[in-house]
Give the backbone structure.
Amino acid sequence: MNLSRMPLFQGIPEEEIQALLRCLAAVEKTYKKGQVIFPEGVPTQWMGIVLQGLVIVSCPDIWGKNSILGSAEPGAVFAEAYACIPAEPLLISVTAAEDSRVLLLNIGSILSSCTNACPFHTRLIQNLLTVCAVKSLQLSRRILHTTPKSIRGRLQSYFSECVKKSGSLSFTIPYNRQQLADYLGVDRSALCNELSKMRQDGLIQFSRNQITMLPSRQELP
């Protein structure tokens, strides 16, 4: 994947990115599906960038139930907020949802003045601030999706955002059924039942993670 197309490196030429990564002592790692990248309860000074695959950010409780907070696809950054507070134990767990390749950056190296006076170091910090702001908005959207009391209302809220984001009534979601249930804070069986009812009611069509909205008969949440 072309690093210059990633939000964190926006506006930085590819050759300068490679120089920055050497200066920052970036580390590339691979993770198998289901492997934990950053465990809950452990502080970290590292933030990650997904180069390939898919990463899930979740918040497990003491009974073993996970609340999915979001996902990170190729080009996306994760754990940056915790890396900025290196003594703070993670309240989240970051796991590879499929075989993934990740670039790890030490936040201290990013925020400190570069001894090599890299000309694009300041731009990198500015981009990081933008990424953090976008993540904050994403968490706000999840709150909106979990506000409706009914499962159908939560699904419609989430699917509505997916339509706006993709610009199409047909879109692919990054979650399987259990992950979608965790993201919306509902029971998996109840969610599957509601999806089937919405299809029977002529509101949606779906095949695995591919969803198609049929807006002419949409109901209010």
About this structure: The radius of gyration is 19 Å. The chain has seven helices and eleven strands. The mean pLDDT is 89. Helices lie at 14-24, 80-83, 107-111, 121-145, 151-166, 177-184, 188-200.
